[in-house]
Design a protein that fits this description.
This protein is an alpha/beta fold. It folds into 2 domains: about 120 residues, 3-Layer(aba) Sandwich (Rossmann fold); about 240 residues, 3-Layer(aba) Sandwich (Rossmann fold). The chain is about 40% helix and about 25% strand. The protein has 14 helices and 16 strands. Helix 1 packs parallel to helix 2, helix 5 packs across helix 11 and helix 8 packs across helix 9. The two termini are about 35 Å apart.
């Protein structure tokens, strides 16, 4: 059944369904959205193979420049409803049009070279920062977890430093989401400790876990706004449900958060009336209005173009600095990862294959790490 298949296998089944009628033209609508770099490479290989075997014309909508580089014979770039460029990939990357330069800058991953400097917050490259020292907000100690006999986590040891940004990377199914669910107390490990601000949450019962979860805010992958409430209502929702604040206090708290995230001007709009980027900010406002100590971002840039991805990266960095919180980010986007991370942890087959600063992870000698972080390089 489809639910039994991996993301890559489902892509292959969809392609088979499209090819079974022997078409001359196949349209691919963002075929790599939500996939990790290695899986994107495999989907690209599948598209090339289909083109060669079936002699089809392929038209691909894509935000992924590494995929575009591998696949495109011709590139058309749309801006404000017009095709402002049409040519081959090399001509595209050499274009001097400001809108294309900004787009390519957002997508660039040349910083991933082992000895490359790190670009912070979209600025000029600077020397890599040393590993953070100080308090640990969350720590997994020798954590194991199996599901139905399958070993998902195999002895995970992972410190997450307070008031810093740690990014978890790895292939789909490597255990990233399982780690997050353990940190929030939604899963219990088969063995091992999970410490939140020094307290092991594994033996905690439901009431204690609910109190512990107040430390956390979560930005869902697609914001998950309530479409029957306006922006201010969405942000106020957790305050009304989980606190005893008066309506006046709630209104003031909401106004403060909207102002600090520069979205006060859309407070009265409905979710359907705002952009995807604004929805991300509203989702973030709803998460941080409860003043969490730790923010978790679940693939915040999935489905976003390079320009919007850079905006989201800056939002994460600014939030971490303004609100002095600990950030944990799950990501498949290597350009984003190496822009925002203080520390990077890569999972491979349920184990930590690499952990350290961006510079240390780039310098890893593990071939799986090198393949993963460079599969999406442009």
């Amino acid at each position: 059944m489809p639910s039994d298949l991996s993301g890559g296998m489902r892509k292959r089944v969809s392609l088979a369904r499209a090819l079974v009628a022997n078409p001359e033209v196949v349209l691919f609508d963002e075929p790599t959205t939500g996939l990790d770099p290695v899986m994107i490479e495999k989907v690209d290989e599948m598209i090339v193979l289909a083109k060669q075997q079936y002699q089809i014309t392929s038209v691909i909508i894509s935000h992924d420049m590494a995929s575009t580089k591998r696949l495109a014979d011709r590139v058309a770039y749309l801006h404000d409803g017009q095709i402002v460029f049409y040519g081959d990939y090399d001509q595209f990357t050499a274009s001097t049009l400001p809108e294309i330069r900004a787009f390519l800058d957002g997508a660039g991953t040349t910083r991933l070279g082992k000895d490359a400097p790190v670009a912070i917050g979209g600025g000029a490259p600077v020397a890599p920062a040393p590993a953070p020292h100080g308090d640990i907000a969350v720590e997994l100690v020798d954590v194991y977890k199996t599901f139905g006999g399958k070993h998902v986590l195999r002895g995970i040891n992972l410190p997450i430093y307070a008031k810093k940004t740690t990014v978890l990377i790895g292939a789909s199914g490597s255990g990233k989401s399982v780690i997050i669910k353990h940190i929030m107390g939604l899963f219990k490990p088969d063995r091992g400790q999970i410490k939140v601000f020094g307290k092991d949450i594994v033996p905690m019962q439901d009431l204690e876990l609910n109190e512990m979860r107040k430390h956390f805010g979560l930005l869902f992958q697609h914001a998950a706004l309530l479409d029957w409430l306006d922006v201010a209502g969405n942000v106020a929702f957790p305050l009304k449900e989980r606190t005893t604040l008066s309506s006046g206090e709630i209104k003031d708290r909401v106004a403060e958060i909207l102002g600090r995230l520069n979205i006060a001007d859309i407070a009265d709009r409905m979710p359907g009336e705002i952009s995807e980027g604004q929805k991300k900010r509203v989702g973030l406002a709803r998460a941080i209005v409860m003043k969490p100590d730790i923010m978790i971002y679940d693939e915040p840039t999935t489905g976003q173009d390079p320009l919007r991805t850079r905006d989201i990266d800056e939002m994460i960095q600014t939030t971490q600095q303004q609100f002095d919180i600990t950030s944990i980010v799950i990501s498949h986007d290597m350009a984003s990862t190496f822009r925002i991370a203080h520390m990077v942890a890569m999972l491979y087959q349920g184990e930590i294959a690499a952990y350290g600063t961006p510079a240390e992870v780039r310098a890893s000698t593990n071939p799986h790490v090198q393949h993963f972080i460079h599969a999406g390089a442009v």
